[in-house]
Specification:
270 residues; Rossmann fold; five-stranded mixed β-barrel; 6 helices; 9 strands; Purine nucleoside phosphorylase; EC 2.4.2.1; glycosyltransferase; Pur_Nuc_Pase_Ino/Guo-sp
């Protein structure tokens, strides 16, 4: 992997991706932040050596480099998922690349279902902790110790200072921002009623199919990390309706302006 990383980084340096400060991963239905960026360079995933390719139809596949609120950022417009058939090393490969390019902070967004029924669809949840239910780890491979400490500490995976800033920005802009625990499952099937009940018992406030692998690797690389979920549906096992993916994406897009405000205002302070 070390050789692959070096090859990818050399390619992106050659494309003009120089010294980004902040990395951003955009989740399902959350691609509009790129419209706020002064784009300097971009590269399609399928042109970047050793990069996976996004296979989900509503995920774009571009790495974007530019200026946002006066800071150099590198943005993943479209992420990778374990359910696409990739290994967790593939899923998190872009995080390793962004760190090698120079980022010190990683901001992540996702679409998630609300397990906590006090949370409503269209609202946002700041992730303060997570539960990894993907049955694997992106650090579970031979030679990981050459890329960072094998036994990565996860006692506080989300940066407390950044989370405090997010809460302050939400209050100042009248944005409903819950705080809670995100459970990451494999997918791509949605949960059964019994699984939603189990997740609630485990202490999850929201559930999704991403984010946790990237957070683990970011902690492995000693990056500052924060993540926000857009709650796209309410997972009430006693009143469960068939899932409508189009509706979920629509709800993410509806809530996206609030998330963009949070990210932009935060980046001003970093």
């Amino acid at each position: 992997m070390i050789k692959d990383i070096a090859e990818t980084v050399d390619y992106l340096h050659g494309k003009g991706f120089e010294n980004p400060e902040i990395g951003i991963i955009l989740g399902t239905g959350l691609g509009q932040l790129v419209n706020e960026i002064e784009i300097l360079k971009e590269a399609s995933y399928n042109h970047i050596p050793n990069f996976p390719t996004a296979t989900v139809e509503f995920h774009k596949g571009k790495l974007i480099y530019g200026i946002l609120e006066g800071k150099k950022v590198i943005v993943m417009q479209g992420r990778f998922h374990f359910y696409e058939g990739y290994s967790l090393q593939d899923v998190t490969y872009p995080v390793r690349i962004m760190e090698k390019l120079g980022i010190k902070t990683l901001l992540v967004s996702n679409a998630a279902g609300a397990i906590n029924l006090n949370f409503k669809k269209g609202e946002l949840m700041l992730i303060e902790d997570h539960i990894n239910l993907q049955g694997n780890s992106p650090l579970a491979f031979k030679g990981v110790e050459h890329l960072g400490e094998r036994f990565a500490d996860m006692s506080a995976p989300y940066d407390a200072d950044i989370n405090l800033k997010f809460k302050s920005i939400a209050k100042a802009n009248d944005i409903k921002l819950h705080e809670g625990v995100y459970a990451s499952v494999v997918g791509p099937q949605l949960e059964t009623r019994a699984e939603y009940r189990m997740l609630k018992i485990l202490g999850a406030d929201a559930v999704g199919m991403s984010t946790v692998p990237e957070i683990i690797v970011a902690n492995h690389l000693k990056l500052k990390v924060a993540a926000v979920s857009v709650l796209t549906d309410e997972c009430d096992p006693d009143n469960l309706k068939p899932v409508n993916i189009t509706e979920i994406i629509g709800m993410a897009e509806k809530a996206e302006p609030d998330m963009i405000t949070l990210f932009k205002e935060l980046i001003k302070t970093l």
